[in-house]
Amino acid sequence: MPYHRESDRGFPRLRAAGRGLAIVLVAALTAACRAPPAARTQAGPGTGPAGATQYQLDAAGSQLWFYLHAAGPLVKLGHTHVISTHALRGSVWIPAQLEHTSCAFELPVADLLVDDREERRAAGGEFAAPLDEDARSGTREHMLGDRQLDAAHYPLLGLRCQQASVLEDGLLLQLLVSVRDHDAPLAVPVHWQRDGCTLQASGEFTFRQSDLGIEPYSLMLGVLRVDDEIRARFQLTLHCPPAAAGQGRSPGPFRSALALQ
């Protein structure tokens, strides 16, 4: 995912150099005259184990946040960024035996919100200062471009549970994350609480873009770039059919954490 550097008005030479480098890179990439990649076939709705209770994600009551930093020798010319979304959709299936818990989610990448003023204020600290519209639109353009998420050919990011393990302090979900044409494993300990037909889940984690098959955005051979590591957190609300309330046992409170496999 990309960043947008400080205003070019104070750095005309930096701007010219960046544009010159961009022209060279574009020429090198287009010289091969490759056809655009075929859109990835998206998996249909997932299904859980027999007898499991399905909890459908409530998009309005759920949110993801990603926190990005600049890196490199010219790091002071870069920005921090807050990427957020309410667009995640999918389900979790919880059976009586929690180790058989399953899930399937997808996220339309075009619905990622870049540096919303209120989200930056809520993040506070180094993220609190608002960014102007040029900085926000530039970041979004790079993020969705063909060298990053490539939204034109891969509009959805997918997450599926591959395995679940019950721990003393939580539930460890082994996820398969699908970004563009790349699949990567992710181990996710989740904090959650079930109350009747409502499931609340939350957590915080870090991951590396390179582990998901994405090369962090960079300028001038990496002297200014996006840090490979991104911090993320989530708060999810899910609901089951009213008739399913009270079935199975409550997962109880789990500790928030996440470790990249």
Can you give a write-up of this model?
It is a single chain. With 261 residues, the protein is an alpha+beta fold. It has a single domain (8-33, 51-244), classed as Beta Barrel (Lipocalin), CATH 2.40.128.110. 15% of the residues lie in helices and 37% in strands. It is built from 3 helices and 14 strands. Strands 1-5-6-8-9-10-11-14 form an 8-stranded antiparallel beta barrel. A 3-stranded antiparallel β-sheet has the order 3-13-12, with no helix packed on it. A hairpin with a 2-residue loop joins β8 (156-167) and β9. The longest helix has 20 residues, at 12-31. The protein is elongated. The two termini are 20 Å apart.
- Going by CATH, the homologous superfamily would be Lipid/polyisoprenoid-binding, YceI-like
Q: Could you report the average pLDDT, rounded to the nearest whole number?
A: 79
Instruction: Please indicate the count of domains.
Output: 1
CATH architecture: Beta Barrel
Largest sheet: 8 strands, antiparallel, barrel
Give the C-alpha Rg.
Answer: 20 Å
Beta strands, count: 14
Give the CA-based shape.
Answer: elongated
Q: In CATH's first tier, which class applies? A: Mainly Beta
Q: At the third CATH level, what is the topology name? A: Lipocalin
Order of helices and strands: HEEEEEEEHHEEEEEEE
